[in-house]
Design goal:
The chain is an alpha+beta fold. The protein has 2 domains: about 90 residues; about 120 residues, Cytidine Deaminase, domain 2 (3-Layer(aba) Sandwich), CATH 3.40.140.10. It is built from 9 helices and 5 strands, in the order H-H-H-H-H-H-E-E-H-E-H-E-E-H.
Length: about 220
């Protein structure tokens, strides 16, 4: 039975307008994004299936191109999902830039997952910080291929000087889906840390994002 046949007080969009978004379940919020269901399924039914398939809201929004394989998610619905993800990413970026300090590896994890999890090629990101660890800029420094990207310490040092940074958090993704550092990842982090130490810029962390996971070098004791 389609949502249009429901009592008006039970329809997700009407409930959102009457009571606010916080009153809706995850499935109902997704249904508002979807707007319509497919034959034999309401938008809420389809939303519940998506949430179950991707084990929750975060993983569903990070699915990216995978959503193309879901029956009932045509270009319009995928565009709405992409817009929602981009708005969430920009909101998190604004919050990072307004933060008083980044004292915990968990402070940037959600942003990096939204930025990098669905990328099909490797990308290397620098979050440049001032002396109080407030965000100066978030820069995608290098982009590579499906399996690797080339990162040049000299260019990272030049960027640090350009931003007048006092500290940095690095991140890159593993499209393979394995959030474990390779030996080359560890060596690169060491080389970058040593190069930046010469200009008194501290490396606070290096995240590896893979699928729905974000591994922190600092949490692992690898810095």
């Amino acid at each position: 039975m389609g949502i249009s046949s429901w009592d008006e007080t039970e329809r997700p969009r009407e409930r959102l307008l009457a009571k606010g978004a916080g009153a809706l379940s995850d499935a109902e919020l997704v249904a508002v994004l979807l707007r319509t269901g497919v034959r034999g399924k309401s938008a809420v039914d389809l939303a519940r299936e998506l949430l179950k398939k991707y084990d929750g809201v975060t993983h569903m929004l990070e699915a990216g191109a995978e959503l193309e394989a879901v029956k009932g998610l045509g270009p319009a619905k995928r565009a709405q999902f992409a817009a929602a993800v981009e708005l969430a990413r920009r909101s998190l970026q604004e919050k990072l830039k307004q933060s008083a300090a980044l004292t915990s590896p968990g402070a940037v994890r959600d942003y990096l997952r939204l930025k990098l999890a669905s990328r099909k090629e490797e990308a290397f990101v620098c979050i440049w910080l001032d002396a109080q660890h407030k965000v100066i800029d978030i820069e995608e420094a290098f982009t590579g291929t499906l399996t690797q990207t080339s990162v040049y310490p000299r260019e990272i040092v030049k960027s640090a000087l350009r931003h007048n940074a006092a500290a940095v958090i690095f991140a890159h993704n593993h499209p393979s889906g394995v959030a474990e550092p390779s030996r080359s990842d560890e060596l690169l982090t060491r080389d970058l840390r040593e190069a930046l130490a010469l200009i008194e810029v501290k490396v606070l962390d290096h995240f590896i994002v893979a699928g729905h996971h974000a591994m922190s070098f600092a949490e692992r004791g690898l810095l």
